[in-house]
Specification:
By secondary structure, this protein is an alpha/beta fold. The chain has helices at about 5, 10, 15-20, 25-35, 50-55, 70-75, 105-110, 115-125, 150-155, 205-215, and strands at about 40-45, 60-65, 85, 100-105, 130-140, 155-160, 165-175, 180-190, 195-200, 220-225, 235-240. Strands 3-2-1-4-5-11-10 form a 7-stranded mixed β-sheet, with helices on both faces.
């Protein structure tokens, strides 16, 4: 089940306007280039920002996401016909033999259920050709990034085409071991409606992620720093032998 921020049509339409300047994707584009990837699986593709960047470079892309509303946004974008969009997740994909599989942003952490996480790693491996790579990021739990998730530090007012003025903020709800739950709020000036979306992320330690990858037959090639957020993210590069 996708969170409301992705599954609700009115909220999915806001995503790009509220998350502009996706400099985090530059490193993933670089990885696609350095590996010579010609076929990429974008797991949790959302509104298709990364998938469309790849497709614009002539790369064959499959974007998969459980939120139909986000896929509707992605399909409607210029170039949307270049990408194969799949409504679902990585656990039931058709044969792909991808050179590269990615989970950008919070995708890996949003798969909070342990069984779903294991099945995602399995599904991604099956979708890769031998020698293909899985690349994803997760926040370093040692940085306790959730302490910054407050209304005061996140409050934003944005003019969104087609929606008008929208106020947005984030508030921490609960920290329960590795699980962190927070609420995103959206206030629409046009009609006064306020919508909220609760999400839970799992903060995994580096050793835990490496064990999971090895258990599913990956070779962990490297754990990088995210160049746009130094010291805050762990970027895993794993290869299917």
């Amino acid at each position: 089940m996708a969170d409301d921020c992705f599954a609700h049509p009115r909220l999915a339409a806001l995503y790009d306007a509220l998350h502009q300047g996706r400099t985090d994707l530059d490193a993933y584009l670089g990885m696609a280039e350095e590996s010579g990837a010609r076929r990429v699986l974008d797991i949790g593709c959302g509104t298709g920002v990364f998938a469309l960047l790849l497709a614009g470079r002539g790369i064959e892309v499959v974007g998969v996401d459980p939120a139909r509303a986000c896929l509707d946004v992605a399909r409607a974008k210029p170039g949307g016909e270049r990408v194969r969009w799949i409504h679902g997740d990585a656990t039931g994909l058709p044969p792909l033999r991808a050179d590269l599989a990615t989970m950008t942003g919070n995708v890996a952490q949003a798969i909070a259920d342990p069984h779903a996480w294991q099945e995602t790693l399995r599904g991604a491996r099956e979708a890769l050709r031998p020698g293909g790579r899985l690349v994803f990021e997760t926040r370093d739990p040692a940085r306790r990034g959730w302490t910054e998730w407050t209304r005061e530090q996140s409050y934003l007012v944005t003019e969104v085409p087609g929606a008008g003025t929208v106020a947005y903020w984030v508030e921490l709800i609960e920290v329960n071991g590795p699980l962190v739950t927070f609420r995103q709020s959206y206030a629409f000036a046009a009609d006064g409606q306020v919508l909220t979306s609760d999400s839970t992320l799992r903060f995994r330690e580096r050793a835990e992620v490496e064990r999971d990858l090895l258990a599913h037959g990956y070779a962990v090639e490297e754990v990088r720093d995210a160049p746009d957020r130094p010291g805050r993210e762990l970027v895993f590069v794993a290869r299917r032998p």
